Write the structure tokens for this entry.
Amino acid sequence: MDKYVIRGGNPLVGTIRVSGAKNSALPCMAAAILTEDEVILENIPQVRDIETERRLLASMGAEVELGTGESGHRTTLCCRTLSDPEAKYEIVKTMRASSLVLGPLVARAGMARVAMPGGCAIGGRPIDMHIKGLEKMGATITQAHGYLEARADRLRGAHLVFSKITVTGTEDLLMAAVLAQGETLMENCACEPEVTDLAALLTAMGAKILGAGTPTIRVLGVDRLHGAHYRINPDRIEAGTFLIAGAITGGDLIVANCNATHLGAVIAKLREAGVRIDILGPDTVRVRPGNRLRAADISTEEYPGFPTDMQAQYMALATQAEGVSVVTENIFENRFMHVQELVRMGADIKVDGRVATVRGATRLSATAVMCSDLRASASLVLAALVADGESILDRVYHMDRGYERIEEKLAGVGAQIKRMGNIFASKDEVAAV
Ligand code: EPZ
């Protein structure tokens, strides 16, 4: 298994470019199921989850190419024939977002067989709201042998009220509604930019949608959708991660190709913590050395609040801030997997349920640490960038799921980071890999 070797202490200086948003690309790729025409998506990140989604769609009979486009990467999808509308467990178990094919498959093909995603490192990750919404729209859903099977001759518009805000639940049911008979009113929807991105693609494909990005979305179902050529948003979580990388190393870093309007809560919180941030333009944000970092509390909320996907990264920064920062994780039940590894590096963090108390500033010392999930891994990279000595991060495949070539991007602005394959793996371990 590949590892990162990171020597801390270098301020990051220069310009680092953000890739396309993984969490926009995944629903947008699934949206191609809704038409027989070709869909071209620009600004696709080259990350493992996108390859997983490509394999998933191809396993159902879709033609999916990943290549180079206008600027960055492009995927061309054609779902003219969906010979096998089934999301198999061996793919779904590696990526929960596979459940995003459920709504579009039922809408387009009248049936879907999707392995139940199961939980992951950060929580149980149920999809009960996806299921309830489809049933409300007329689908018959049965569950057996770890799979759920959904059928409907044609979904019909309904009044859906989410009992809890769910990003992929909103996206899944939005894709179901665009081909349903009649009007669908969706309330208590997620307002994340990734939902707005998906709605913009669907509209370009001929869907009739009002209110995406607000808690109330109205959809007037149409009989068919056509192809589209669409560029997805920059990744706001990658951008936020880079802002913290600049801040934690005391560097002077320009984060380019981002969308500053999606970073409001993150920028406000970093400024509260003493980070000096200048918005140089709609797609460019600069972080520079400023005052000493000072403690500031965070409480993760749905968009436009402070994102749960930035909680682990912020906690790494909080270890370097003077004072006590209280970190409250409201979205997922087990999203403190990074804490014990940060403590092993010298951080002073106490966890009580969904609340972590971080006392800083503490000098972090380099050591070997284990990555456990995507954003926890990012937190350990940030900590290693400021720790004294050389850290070894194991199981970096977690990072590969959502960060494109991050070792190259960070090295390009002065980080001492190398990717090594099996540097300490024993012969047996290598054989086992
Ligand atoms: C999306 O996950 C993102 N993934 C996550 O990013 C992100 O952390 C999360 O939204 C919250 O912003 C993608 O977009 C692919 P939810 P999602 O449904 O949709 C509960 C990353 O690091 N819930 O908004 O799965 C759920 O358990 C990933 O890039 C139900 O109870 O999250 C959670 O407590 C991690 N029933 C809460 O809602 C349901 O049917 C929010 O989950 C659905 C969700």
The pocket of EPZ is lined by residues 23, 26, 96-97, 123-130, 164, 166-169, 190, 194, 308-309, 331-332, 374-375, 402 (CB under 6 Å). Residues 236-248 form the longest helix (13 residues). The radius of gyration is 22 Å. The longest strand covers residues 38-44.
